């Protein structure tokens, strides 16, 4: 038997109420369907306003769907909302907790909201896991931005959910903090927690995610293992160094773009389904140039994202 998905979304529709009489409410989700496999890191990507946050807010119980269904760890969010909510922890974009509580009190209060008896709460364990034990009794308002982010992750895990959703967790943080956060998330994933991630840092998604779904204008436009998704990129760039100054870009029908980037270096973009690198070099030589050096750049997730969403 195959393992059931951690999250199953089927034909999910959300239309927001109109802002005025005679107007039609915005259709934020247009029948989105996808499964999040158990145990991996799943990326949910898309341009601003694509519908990612609407999906997360529906899963969190903050937004009511218009149609379709959502199932978390086997529990339908309408038929069994309590168990569905206990199966998911959500780390929001915004830093939200009472600044006058200490980190320990933040976690204890959250455990109380979930009805966890004091003897069963994991506040000390979670503070250690997010490297905040030494800040146990500091006011939350005195924590650095990175510490507050880590506290949010601990807060999302107080009820030991099998699924952790991170909504833009590294937006506006520095490179070192981003690395620390991903080490922490990687440790949780290694312990069996399924991670769902939204991010605008595409290189981050490419490195971390096993599978990626891309949403655009409320519709699912791709949902594949990361390697397969990157393989969809058709454009490839070859950078050619020649033996004399270029008179101008060598433009041929086989090229999508040709650009002189240095007096003797030419960057050529071509469709790898229609042209090979060998044909590109042969065309350059046919214009009277000798080839001195060649480098190529493979497609990455950013290329695919731009290709699919038309985001320039």
Automatic annotation (TrEMBL):
Lineage: Bacteria, Pseudomonadati, Pseudomonadota, Alphaproteobacteria, Sphingomonadales
Pfam families linked to this entry: ABC_tran (PF00005)
Residues in ABC transporter domain copies: 7-242
Organism superkingdom: Bacteria
GO molecular function, one term: ATP binding
UniProtKB keywords: ATP-binding, Nucleotide-binding, Transport
Chain segments annotated as transmembrane: none
Coiled-coil regions listed: none
Protein name per Swiss-Prot or TrEMBL: ABC transporter ATP-binding protein
Organism (species): Qipengyuania psychrotolerans
């Amino acid at each position: 038997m195959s393992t059931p998905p951690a999250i199953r979304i089927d034909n999910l529709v959300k239309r927001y109420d109109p802002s005025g009489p005679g107007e039609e409410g915005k259709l934020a989700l247009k029948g989105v369907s996808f499964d999040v496999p158990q145990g991996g890191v799943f990326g949910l990507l898309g341009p601003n306003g694509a519908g990612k946050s609407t999906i997360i807010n529906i899963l969190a119980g903050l937004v009511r769907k218009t149609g379709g269904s959502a199932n978390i760890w086997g529990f339908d969010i309408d038929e069994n909302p309590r168990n569905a909510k206990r199966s998911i922890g959500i780390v929001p974009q915004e830093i939200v907790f009472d600044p006058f509580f200490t980190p320990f009190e933040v976690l204890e209060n959250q455990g109380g909201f979930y009805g966890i008896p004091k003897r069963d709460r994991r506040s000390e364990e979670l503070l250690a896991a997010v490297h905040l034990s030494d800040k146990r009794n500091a006011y939350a308002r005195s924590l650095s931005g990175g510490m507050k982010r880590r506290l949010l992750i601990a807060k999302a895990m107080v009820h030991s959910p099998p699924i952790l959703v991170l909504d833009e967790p590294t937006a506006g943080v520095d490179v070192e903090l981003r690395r620390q956060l991903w080490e922490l998330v990687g440790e949780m994933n290694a312990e069996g927690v399924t991670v769902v991630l939204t991010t605008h840092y595409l290189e981050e998604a490419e490195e971390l995610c096993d599978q990626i779904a891309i949403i655009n204008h409320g519709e699912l436009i791709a949902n594949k293992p990361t390697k397969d998704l990157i393989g969809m990129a058709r454009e490839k760039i070859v950078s050619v160094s020649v033996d004399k100054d270029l008179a101008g870009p060598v433009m041929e029908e086989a090229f999508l773009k040709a650009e002189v980037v240095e007096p003797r270096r030419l960057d050529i973009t071509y469709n790898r389904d229609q042209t090979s690198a060998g044909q590109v070099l042969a065309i350059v030589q046919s214009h009277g140039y000798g080839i001195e050096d060649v480098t190529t750049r493979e497609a990455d997730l950013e290329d695919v994202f731009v290709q699919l969403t038309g985001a320039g």
